[in-house]
Amino acid sequence: MSDAGQSYQWSMPNPVDFVPQRVVSLVPSLTLSLFDLNLGHRLVGVTDYCTRPEDRVKNIPKVGGTKNPDIAKIIALHPDLVLMNHEENRREDAEVLQQAGISLWVTEPRTVQDAINVLWEIMDVFDDASYSERVRIMEKTLDVVRLAMSSQPPIRTFVPIWRDPWMTFNQATYLHDVLQIFGLHNVFAERERQFPLKADLGEVDPLPTDSSRDMRYPRITLEEIVAAQPELILLPDEPYLFQEADAKELYQLDIPAAHLDNIYLIDGSLLSWHGTRFAFTLTELPPMVEDVHEKLGHTHEDKSD
Questions:
Q1: The predicted structure's pLDDT at residue 15
Q2: Which of 80, 148, 258, 293 is most buried, most CB within 10 Å of its CB?
Q3: Which residue segments constitute the domains of the chain, with CATH numbers given?
């Protein structure tokens, strides 16, 4: 990720006043959500990373990656709407598509509720709420899980999203909100990214604050991880594919997560995919979190840190 560049704030609300019939999705989580909402038949193009649902997306034309889409191929598909996301896609690609006269919808959910609101808006835009009960059930389950998780003390949690150098996220992100729902305290919630890289790693003084730079994803050192004393570490398989070797390295650190065997490899889509995929997050994460509470000796009555 470059230290230079344009402002990262470039979301575009739904621009259409018609019911889209030919859609290109450049966002894997939105591709899955369209299928889950019975709208997958509107898709005429998806990215190479749109892998779910596997049996449905395999026959849809591919238009390249999320960061390097084939613009000419997208235009040739004659979409009446292209779905994008400010985190996963590039502003310069959006500008080229816009100049070609294509309507764009660039989403920017910062919280789980934001993402659920996008699902309701999708059903409204596509004038099809036949699967709205799925979203209602997800909302109700979210309320139940949030209440259940709030009855126990927060678990100090570290979730890297990259390494060499290690990178994580702060409180101004969707990922942070997901952790909060499950009673997981992001140990780097207050940490902002510094520029240049050496400043982030504490080797030089940082440059002055610049609002055009994205400060939500700090690069951190192993020393900072140790100082944060996480009780739980989750290693997702995307955007970086963390593996057993990475877990083994972290197990060498003098931290509670290592001492209590609380370092887990995890399906990254459970944390980072907004939309209908979150329904699986609500069922998959609670049992793991409960196991960690048991290892930490927490009870439902104990709310002390």
A1: 67
A2: 293
A3: 1-108 (3.40.50.1980), 138-296 (3.40.50.1980)
